[in-house]
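Running this now, will post back.
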Amino acid sequence: MRLRRLTGLGVVAASVAALAACSDGDGGTPVINVYGSTSDAGWTKILDACNAAAQGRYTIRPNLIPSDADSQREQFVRRLAARDEGMDVLGMDVTWTAEFAEAGWIRELTGEQAQAATEGVLQQPIDTATWKDKLYGIPRTTNVQLLWYRKSLVPDAPTTWQQVVDRAQQLKSENKPYVIGLTAAQYEGYVVGFNTILSSLGGTLVNEDSTKPTVDERTVEALGILKSLATDGLASASLSNSQEPEVFAQMQNGQAAFAINWPYMLSAMREANPEVADDLGWTKLPQFKEGEPARATLGGMNYAISTYSTHPDLAFDAAMCLRNPEAELNGALDAGNVPVLEEVFDDPEFQEAYPMYEDILAELETAVPRPKTPLYQNISTIVSSTLSPPSQIDPQRTADTLRTEIQDAIDGKGILP
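Update: finished.
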């Protein structure tokens, strides 16, 4: 398998689309335009199977979009605001559901469609496709991060963050690889990491109805953990520029002893550095509060049907084919996408490729979403900016700034960073 650029979003694509949208193909056959995930390894195989299964009722056309979630959202927002009829199936980051639903850009799924979209699906991905008790998406992939480590350097899998820190300090004193890899560049992946630490301490950023911030002493404690990692000499010198590929590279090149990253690490390392792959161990995320299991932040992607699609029922059928068990298995094996269908987790071929599947399932049971709010993009931008660079965090002062700026965003005040 090839290395994929993954984010807490889980949504991956290649470049800005330059394709003109059209509603009908040759001979009047409806064209279903799909945006998102179309550059995944092995996607052509899934596409060809679904086009064959359509038996001429429609043709699925893949469209490329930018590789990062922020640019993807920008393109979607611009085109949907213009009521672009050439957008049918939208591969949406799990954080966009509330915003797009409130804007009226995506269709609510009801009745038989809602039942089909959720049958056999893990509950946590369903929750990410739901807003105000209404279903707006077909869950396609999910994701949680794991703790990865070099078995030759770390004989026993750590269960607490303090154990990770203590072992890294010991390795450093012995002049051995010691780095703790974490995504801390100013982008969405940093928000994922911070949300995981904060949630594991029992904290949140906003209340349930997203009307006020909930920044408190647990936020201060979470910020203290990030500050310590950035200043105690156990992180990479490039911590403030580290996204998933950089964290992967730190493990690949023998710099890191630990890394918090997504499940693709194993398959990608087998291709990039088989020697390191053979030495790669994994476990659930460490407890940041001793005695309390860590709460991983959910990633992944859902398919939504654009309100402006001229073929919404056909678009739904196409999306369901692209999310069927065969497609889910192929996506897992070829592209490193974690499936949402329970039956795929039971497949022996999947279990062989994902020997960490039990840890993934265990983390999914306690995983948490990022704040579910139409204002998520604003809150995310505030968090990643306020916490950057991590070495400059002053836990109490930074928490106070977060509280004020999140409240301003909720109240519609201020200017985004």
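The chain has two domains: 26-143+298-354, 146-296+373-410. More later if anyone needs it.
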